[in-house]
């Protein structure tokens, strides 16, 4: 069956580079003679038929823009059988031969459900958490990391002047990839991630103590939100060693901003690859990067894979922080 018309949507937490990816999907589709519709507000848009026709012009000059022109949402209705059936009806009514869904694992679970009803779906990983197991890289991670690094570098200036301790919370409800990467890049005194069991004395207090023995008088503790609240960690530091830490929660700042070159280029390649998959009659696939090349994996297989913080990163951090 030849593919004549497809839809593209962004779902879950937004990530810088999603627009670049939408642009690439649209332009690749048109290049292959396929019409492309933007489905707005994630899976909710597929349920309600909230669609807009996309062409070369209306995806012009978005490669550099953060956020998503298609809006995004986390759809509870789509998690139900009723919601999924409504979405399938929309696909049939509009004559969509395939859907490209950009987002995280919640998005892919939706894609998988839809493909069980015979709709062709390809997922593209887009989340600043970088926590999709089947891919080394998720769109948005590099931009978010650079945003957090820029903020922490600024914080360090004032922490150094005042000889203070700082506890910075970065995003990552269930994943510490961002925190670990940012911690390595900013020379953090300690990094706390949800994947590693935390011994407060060993992982925080002793690291601060060691830094002090090494001659430092300011300390930067980076914590992923899923590993504990920065306020609580600061309270415990005060209680145990009588420092008076300042707390910074970087929050949603990390999800915005112009995407970096890495995110723009990865997003563009992944968007192209997704349309090529649909055009070749493939479905139920996730586009992923492995060892520098773009490839794809079955959604079920991809979601079943496990990812953990690289041991090398843990070892390097230990060497950098002296214990
Ligand atoms: O996009 C992933 C993520 O940034 C998580 O790290 C974070 O916990 C969550 O989204 C917050 O999402 P929201 O506040 O948009 O619901």
Keywords:
323 residues; alpha/beta; 7-stranded mixed beta sheet; 4-stranded parallel beta sheet; 11 helices; 11 strands; binds 6-O-phosphono-beta-D-fructofuranose
In a nutshell, what does this entry contain?
This protein has 323 residues and is an alpha/beta fold. Helices cover 43% and strands 18% of the residues. The protein has eleven helices and eleven strands.
Question: What is this structure's SSE topology?
Answer:
Layout: E1 5-10, H1 18-31, E2 35-39, H2 43-48, E3 51-54, H3 81-94, E4 98-103, H4 105-116, E5 121-125, H5 141-162, E6 165-170, H6 177-186, E7 190-192, H7 200-213, E8 219-224, H8 230-241, E9 246-249, H9 261-279, E10 285-290, E11 293-298, H10 299-304, H11 311-321
Parallel strand pairs: 1-2, 1-4, 4-5, 5-10, 6-8, 6-9, 7-8
Antiparallel strand pairs: 2-3, 10-11
Helix pairs in contact: 1-9, 5-6, 6-11
Largest sheet: 7 strands, mixed
Overall pLDDT: 96
User: Which small compounds were modeled alongside the protein?
Assistant: 6-O-phosphono-beta-D-fructofuranose
Main sheet: which strands, in order across? 3-2-1-4-5-10-11
Number of strands: 11
Radius of gyration: 22 Å
Given helix and strand content, the structural type is alpha/beta
The percent of residues in helical segments reads 40-55%
Overall shape: it is elongated
Number of helices: 11
Instruction: Give the uncertain stretches in residue-range form.
Output: none
Order of helices and strands: EHEHEHEHEHEHEHEHEHEEHH
Give the CA-CA distance, first to last residue. 60 Å
